[in-house]
């Protein structure tokens, strides 16, 4: 019997070792009734606190994939847990295979941690069991075994576990020793809301994680001495955002870039009822009229002052509006709100180039303008204009350059004006040396960064020093990583800065942890209370003995408890 168990342990070890050495993360079916997955531990939220970002093995029951109409395979996690008996068998094989003192097992290198989904059919309602190795040098000296049990939701706070019970659970598994008890909690500051018992989902969220020592009671509010970290995830395009107008402008810019890349452009609904050509004609006539008036005024007076023209007034009301839009930028604003075809773009730019060629206008532009149209305007100052063939995709290229130039200045104007960064730190995002497609991507990164800053500045009211630090963090991130609205930016803050947001609110997650031992031999027993189940592979049914008061404002909490045992190899 013993030799058969050891043989099974070696076979299981060889399978795991083979999967560990492979670069592929494809599922592997073991003995027909078990599926083994290799993934990062943070992919499963409930395991994240124990596994972090390190690779782990997940064992579960193989379930046939269900194909949706779009042919994307979907797996129902509620069908994939194993029995507790099978789970314990897998853990025993894992533990035996790592014990060099077992005669028939070689001195094997350490395996990734192993976690097994369980069906909660046992009296303790076990949802996960896990094991991870403890190494002394290159040798595995012990294994930590984990057991995670879950209870359905309750609004009765008296039914929740107490700290004394948690301490007793810890002492059951570990000899008397000095223990510490720490707390952590997460509060939602911004995101999904509940309206008339219906959850309105938001693509953006701001949560805050607290950590503190010396917990005195279950569900206690984090003290002001806690460490606090904001988790900021912002999706652009929210109509409530002060940057929504800039988002629309960026989307038009993106549509031009996509059109050049794919050959097809999805034109946005025009914001102006007047056609693009008529808007351009009116703009040119306005400039000619202004120039004529200024000449007449100059002849009547000797005063030589800068004229006040339409250039000095913002054209649209935006959070990042500037009062110094030059001719090219004002033309861009009119065209992006009105063009609906390639023909529109070509016709508008033809009107402008002809007005420049015949000297009808001598518009003012920023000195650092880099678009093709800006170069033609500079040439017009000397009555020498290169011929430009406004056919094919050339007009679209020209309009794209105009938009890139204008929006770069918008973002610079805010970031530099608010002293959140310097031009040196923006060089990567402002470079015109890369192709236009990449320029649009980098501009989109800047926009996302600003949406993050706006959320923390206008909604949370964070002070300048925190916004400055957040800006530097976002800039550094986006110099290295691709554009990603799902990314969570982190920012450490003092709890006092946001105390009015959370002190009277209920946490979405609250955790207490009793620990003893040191270093790799530290063992922990924890309880987590959450507003939703942390385990996704079982269905929690309401307690028939509990009467729910729909008018009650008391939150319902699910309970998840994790116990740890340390198995030393003598």
TrEMBL record:
Tell me if Cell cycle is a UniProt keyword of this record.
Answer: yes
Instruction: Give the superkingdom in one word.
Output: Eukaryota
Describe, as the record does, how this protein assembles with itself and its partners: Component of the RZZ complex.
What is the name listed in the Swiss-Prot or TrEMBL entry for this protein? Protein zwilch
List the record's Gene Ontology CC terms alphabetically: RZZ complex
Cross-referenced Pfam families? Zwilch
- InterPro entries associated with the record: Zwilch (IPR018630)
Biological role stated in the UniProt entry = Essential component of the mitotic checkpoint, which prevents cells from prematurely exiting mitosis. Required for the assembly of the dynein-dynactin and MAD1-MAD2 complexes onto kinetochores. Its function related to the spindle assembly machinery is proposed to depend on its association in the mitotic RZZ complex.
Name the protein family.
Answer: Belongs to the ZWILCH family.
Per UniProt, the keywords (alphabetical) are: Cell cycle, Cell division, Centromere, Chromosome, Kinetochore, Mitosis
Q: Which residues cross the membrane?
A: none
Where, per UniProt, does this protein localize? Chromosome, Centromere, Kinetochore
């Amino acid at each position: 019997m013993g030799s058969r168990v050891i043989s099974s342990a070696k076979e299981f070890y060889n399978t795991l070792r083979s999967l560990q050495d492979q670069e592929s993360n494809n599922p592997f079916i073991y003995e027909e009734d078990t599926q083994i997955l290799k993934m990062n531990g943070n992919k499963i939220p409930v395991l994240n606190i124990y596994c972090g970002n390190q690779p782990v093995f997940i064992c579960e029951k193989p379930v046939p994939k269900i194909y949706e109409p779009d042919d994307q395979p979907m797996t129902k996690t509620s069908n994939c847990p194993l029995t507790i008996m099978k789970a314990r068998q897998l853990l025993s094989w894992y533990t035996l295979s790592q014990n060099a003192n077992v005669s028939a097992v070689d001195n094997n290198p350490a395996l990734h941690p192993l976690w097994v989904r369980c069906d909660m059919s046992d009296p303790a309602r076990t949802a996960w069991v896990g094991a991870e190795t403890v190494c002394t040098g290159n040798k595995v000296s012990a294994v930590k075994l984990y057991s995670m049990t879950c209870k359905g939701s309750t609004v009765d706070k008296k039914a929740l576990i107490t700290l004394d019970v948690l301490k007793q659970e810890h002492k059951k598994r570990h000899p008397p020793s000095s223990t510490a008890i720490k707390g952590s909690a997460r509060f939602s500051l911004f995101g999904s809301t509940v309206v008339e018992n219906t959850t309105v989902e938001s693509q953006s969220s701001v949560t805050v994680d607290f950590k503190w020592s010396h917990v005195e009671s279950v569900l206690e509010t984090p003290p002001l001495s806690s460490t606090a970290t904001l988790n900021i995830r912002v999706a652009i395009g929210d109509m409530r955002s002060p940057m929504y107008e800039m988002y629309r402008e960026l989307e038009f810019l993106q549509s031009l870039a996509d059109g050049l890349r794919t050959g097809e452009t999805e034109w946005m609904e025009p914001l102006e009822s007047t056609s693009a050509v008529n808007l351009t004609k009116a703009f040119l006539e306005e400039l000619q009229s202004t120039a004529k008036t200024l000449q007449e005024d100059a002849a009547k007076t000797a005063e030589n002052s800068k004229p006040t023209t339409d250039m000095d007034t913002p054209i649209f009301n935006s959070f990042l509006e500037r009062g110094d839009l030059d001719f090219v930028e004002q033309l861009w604003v009119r065209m992006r709100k009105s063009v609906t075809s390639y023909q529109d773009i070509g016709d508008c730019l033809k009107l402008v180039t002809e007005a420049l060629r015949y000297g009808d206008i001598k518009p003012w532009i920023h000195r650092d303008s880099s678009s093709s149209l800006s170069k033609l305007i500079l040439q017009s100052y000397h009555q020498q204009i290169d011929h430009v063939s406004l056919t094919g995709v050339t007009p679209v290229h020209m309009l794209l350059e105009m938009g890139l130039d204008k929006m770069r200045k918008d973002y610079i104007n805010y970031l530099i004006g608010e002293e959140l960064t310097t031009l040196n730190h923006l060089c990567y995002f402002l470079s015109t040396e890369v192709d236009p497609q990449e320029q649009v991507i980098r501009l989109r990164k800047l926009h996302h960064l600003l949406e993050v800053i706006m959320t923390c500045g206008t909604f949370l009211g964070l002070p300048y020093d925190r916004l400055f630090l957040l800006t530097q963090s976002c800039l550094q991130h986006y110099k290295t990583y691709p554009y990603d609205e799902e990314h969570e930016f982190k920012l450490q803050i003092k709890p006092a800065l946001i105390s009015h947001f959370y002190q009277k609110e209920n946490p979405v997650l609250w955790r207490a942890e009793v620990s003893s031992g040191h270093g790799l031999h530290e063992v922990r027993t924890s309880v987590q209370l959450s507003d939703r189940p942390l385990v996704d592979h079982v269905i929690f049914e309401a307690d028939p003995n509990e009467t729910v008061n729909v008018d009650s404002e008391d939150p319902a909490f699910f309970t998840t408890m994790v116990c740890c045992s340390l198995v030393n190899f003598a």
